Amino acid sequence: MLELLISVLFLWLSYKFIGLALKITWGVAKLIASLLFVVALPSLVICILFAGGLLLIIPVLMMIGAIALLSSSV
Fold this sequence. Notes:
By secondary structure, this protein is mainly alpha-helical. The protein is 97% helix and 0% strand. It has 1 helix and no strands. The radius of gyration is 28 Å and the shape is rod-shaped.
């Protein structure tokens, strides 16, 4: 009977340890993902600007300016 109790306790603790390991892994993964997002997004924007994105931004800014002028005169 004691052996059965110890086996059940061991299985329960194993289950809890696996759950804790998954929670820790998920937290670390979210931390790494957020750090990569903070570092990679500005780098991506800078790379797009230097790789010819400046030619694309000028017409977009002109359209935004035209819309702003038209909406402010109404």
